[in-house]
Description:
InterPro entries: GlbO/GLB3-like, Globin-like_sf, Globin/Proto, Globin_bac-like_CS, Hemoglobin_trunc. With 127 residues, this protein is an all-alpha fold. It contains seven helices and no strands.
Amino acid sequence: MTQEVTFYEAVGGEETFRRLVHRFYEGVAADPLLRPMYPEEDLGPAEERLRLFLIQYWGGPRTYGERRGHPRLRMRHVPFRIGEAEHDAWLGHMRSAVEELQLPEPLETMLWDYLVMAANTLINAPG
């Protein structure tokens, strides 16, 4: 019998997502466009939410859903103005974080394609 390996397992599990999201939020913390979108003084709670979401999405533990229910990404982001500039800044920080992981090309492409798609769906202030 062969056992399928999830993307989560293939990229190294929780530690990989911890590194990815931490590096991403280091960029956000210093970004004058994005930082105001995080009202909490400490970015730790936002970092944990994104990490848990990505872990669950990619086949890891379902902690995000147990704590927060269905992701409802668009609904959760409605209070924030997300236009092209915010989209591009978010992807810029995420690109740096993804590249630092040095994943094998097919895995990096899968992750990056998902992040681009997700960022595109959250734009709520076109033009």
